Amino acid sequence: MAAHAEVSRRTLLKGGGAALAGLGALQVSGPAHAFPGHPGDEVIPWLDQPGPNPIPDVLQNLLVWEELDSWITPADDFFVVSHYGNQTVSEAGFQLGIGGLVARPQKLTLDALKARPRREVTFTLECSGNTGPPFFIGGVGNARWAGTPLAPLLECAGIEDPDAEIVFFGADSGAVTIRDNSGVVRSPEPPVLTITEQFARSMTVDEAMDEGNLLCYEMNGAALPPEHGFPLRLIAPGWYGVANVKWLTRIEVMDQRWAGRFMARDYVTIREPHPGQAVWTFNTVKHDRLKSAPAKVTRHRDRYAVMGAAWGAPIAEVEVQIDGGPWRAAELDDRRRARKRDGFAWRFWTFHWGRPGPGEHTVRSRAYDVEGNLQPAPDDPFLASKVTYWESNGQITRRVRIPAG
Ligand SMILES: Nc1nc2c(c(=O)[nH]1)N[C@H]1C(S)=C(S)[C@@H](COP(=O)(O)O)O[C@H]1N2
Ligand SMILES: [Mo]
Asked: Looking at the predicted structure, is the pLDDT value of residue 10 above 50?
């Protein structure tokens, strides 16, 4: 990323929307794996900007959409979500344990894992909270992850019960307050229980045995950075971020579904499918959902374009709507289509806007996947029935002001 773009990024991150007012347009240069477009294209910043990040200890390095210029997100620019803070796990003494209801418990050093067959996947990781709260629109990135496939190791360990649940533990833990005991215990003060809970997520045997899952030790060709899970993380292509357990130290086969914080309390989508009937559904966040976002408006001479990304499912088509008008096709960037291992990666798209009139405009995008599913409109009943902010994959509208002349 060019130096001046770096400065802008910091300005944007620090000041949020306020800094933009004085910023004017950004100049973005075109590196080798650039976003389609021309070097020197001018970027017109969105008028709607995310508010300041209120949880910097949990969330860092959010994508600044105007600065998206690389199909692979460099590790340094990749968003971070660490609920119990970033961890430092040293490689010395590190072992991955596989235990519980298995015939042959395993202990594997990082070298032992690296000596096993290596596989890569390019996978767009999105936090399922992305586009939920107003400050959180940059929780997505695309990286090339490498590691060893999980399934053969589970086979070595020998899972005897096909109905078992595979639990993945991170090295991180934190104080968790268990609330909501007030309804059952009527003592004067509702008791509040605080425990130290380890980060964990679980999958069924079938889900865990999916051949795409990796015990991942590399990101974009280098060792995993500490904040992204060094020395080892689970990469589960096609799953929302939360399932991709960082600082993975233990895999435990259990006879019950894990009902810890990140399975059963946080990262639970609550819906009321029939409004007013007070029958709610509760679902653990699992697989990615079809989504797209306008990334930036650019100007090349007197012509404007909207560029964006689409992910969450194999993408067939993206359309753009200006000012609530007709939907028109965007051009998909095809460079990577032939590479099978990129099936979980986002696709970039460009909408040739032409010469819009000066003033304020709205820009909305929507994606279709290869099965014909459409990214839902904001008033889609399924989306509208959702009361929690997880899995907000509705169509995104941004606002931009086209300068006169
Ligand atoms: N051990 C551990 N793994 C974790 C988390 C965490 O807090 N602890 N956060 C999860 C969430 S919610 C997301 S969105 C992704 C983010 O991965 P990243 O920080 O590498 O972008 O990591 C997941 N894995
Ligand atoms: Mo997340």
From this structure: no
CATH of 10-37+55-255, one of 3.30.70.1450, 3.40.1050.10, 3.40.50.300, 3.90.420.10: 3.90.420.10
Which band of pLDDT confidence, cut at 50, 70 and 90, is reported for residue 187? low
**Which ligand approaches the C-alpha of residue 77 most closely?**
1
pLDDT of residue 29: 40
**Residue closest by Cα to atom 2 of ligand 1:** 246
Q: What is the 3-state secondary structure (H, E, C) of 181-221?
A: CCCCCCCCCCCCEEEEEEEEEEEEHHHHCCCCCEEEEEECC
pLDDT in tens, 111-124: 999 999 999 999 99
Give the ligand at the shortest distance from the Cα of 243.
1
Pocket of ligand 1, beta carbon within 6 A = 78-84, 125, 127, 170, 172, 199, 228, 241-242, 244-247
- Say which ligand is closest to the CA of 235: 1
Q: What is the mean pLDDT of residues 231-237?
A: 98
Residues with CB under 5 A from ligand 2 (ion): 81, 127, 241-242
* Selected residue with higher pLDDT from 214 and 14: 214
Q: Where are the domains of the chain?
A: 10-37+55-255, 291-402
pLDDT tens string 121-173: 999 999 999 999 999 999 999 999 999 999 999 999 999 999 999 999 999 99
Instruction: Please tell me the class of the 291-402 domain.
Output: mainly beta
3-state class of 3 per DSSP? helix
Gap from CA of 318 to ligand 1 centroid (Å): 29
Question: What pLDDT does residue 150 have?
Answer: 98
Residues pairing with 404 in the sheet:
none
Is the distance from CB of 138 to CB of 63 less than 8 angstroms?
Answer: yes
CA distance 173 to 182: 25
